[in-house]
Amino acid sequence: MVEVTAVVERADLLGESPLWHPAERALYWLDIKAPALHRLDPATGVIADWKLPQETGSIGLRRDGGLIAGLRDGFAVLTPGDGGTVGIDWIANPESDRPDNRLNDGKCDRQGRFWAGSFHDPAGMPAPGPRMREPVGALYRLDPDRTCHRMADGILVSNSLCWSPDGTVMYFADSPRRTIRAWDYDPASGAIANERVFARLPDSGGTPDGSTVDAEGFLWNAQFGGGKLVRYAPDGSIDAQIAMPVRRPTCCAFGGADLRTLYVTSGRVMADAAELAAEPLAGALFAIRCDVPGLAETAWPG
Predict the structure, then answer these.
(1) Is the pTM of this model over 0.85?
(2) C-alpha span between 16 and 12 (Å, rounded)
(3) Contact residues for 7 (Cβ-Cβ < 8 A; gap 6+)
(4) Coil, strand or helix: which one is 166?
(5) What distance in Å separates the CA atoms of residue 195 and residue 268, rounded to the nearest whole number?
(6) What are phi and psi of 301, to 5 degrees?
(7) CA 231 from centre of chain
(8) For residue range 141-178, what is the model confidence (pLDDT) as tens digits?
(9) Cα–Cα distance measured from residue 158 to residue 148, given in angstroms and rounded to the nearest whole number
(10) How buried is 24 (Cβ within 10 angstroms: 0-12 exposed, 13-18 middle, 19+ buried)?
């Protein structure tokens, strides 16, 4: 039996992008729809919160301080300050011609390039709905020199970005299509090639949301609406499944000094009153101790 512990019992509308900061020994994560940035010090239990100016889909470490982030209006460096204020250094808005899109899931590759994908999600909407299922999203790579490159088009909802331990395989999910895909990845150039299906989810149950890869090269995926985490072997077969106490886990990331704590965010979006009454922990942050550690995230050097 695997113990799933609620470490922060708060009602995030759409908790996302857990990120372990090794220098601070703290976990950052987002509530996209609040919008807000949170930080947990596991040693003390102290939580800090910062109000964000717009929906922010993902964060990554930055070598020179602060966080690299994908927001509704593009890429920026966030610098959390005192009094709940956040400094913003805007870098690029690759979708200025698509104002109803926003950046979603994102992560740094093993060399520190920050990737994030977009999808159609008009401002002010509580959650993706049927009218947003238009393939107008794209996948972007932000290099350390602050140049932004569009790498793929025709995306419905971008999720699951992560890399194999050696950085030669990149994983990605277009969630409504219910598949996790893989590309060959060139660590030297950041180029992708040879797209293929890594894992296909059944028609019933959840859709693939955020993912991470452990030190053995197994991929962990949070399945939104399915109420579980699934660990996939490098060949795409299912190795293990962990039932969550909520139906809408959103993303997972390893943290802790030994990188053996798997943190899992969750959300309350798209849940009706009956579901919320039955799931008092919806929107909480969870932790699971794992035998196999994760891998340290690389910081964006820009």
Answers:
(1) yes
(2) 9
(3) 40, 42, 263, 284, 285, 286, 287
(4) coil
(5) 33
(6) -90, 10
(7) 16
(8) 999 999 999 999 999 999 999 999 999 999 999 999 99
(9) 17
(10) exposed
Three-state SS across 254-284?
EECCCCCEEEEEEECCCCCHHHHHHCCCCCC
The residues pairing with 286 across neighbouring beta strands, listed in sequence order, are 6, 264
- Here the tokens at position 288 are 């699971």
pLDDT digits (tens, 9 = 90+) for 80-93: 999 898 999 999 99
One-letter amino acid at 238 equals I
Token couple for 74: 């593009």
| C-alpha–C-alpha distance, residues 31 and 233, integer Å | 30
First and final C-alpha spacing in the chain: 43
For residue 145, what are the contacts with CB-CB under 8 A and spacing of at least 6? 302
The Cα–Cα gap between 160 and 64 comes to: 26
The 8-class DSSP code of residue 130 comes to: G
- Catalytic residues, which ones? 209
Q: Under 8 Å CB-to-CB from 114, ≥6 apart: which residues? A: 60, 68, 70, 75, 106, 107, 108, 141, 142, 300, 302
Tokens of 272: 């009706």
Amino acid at 90: W
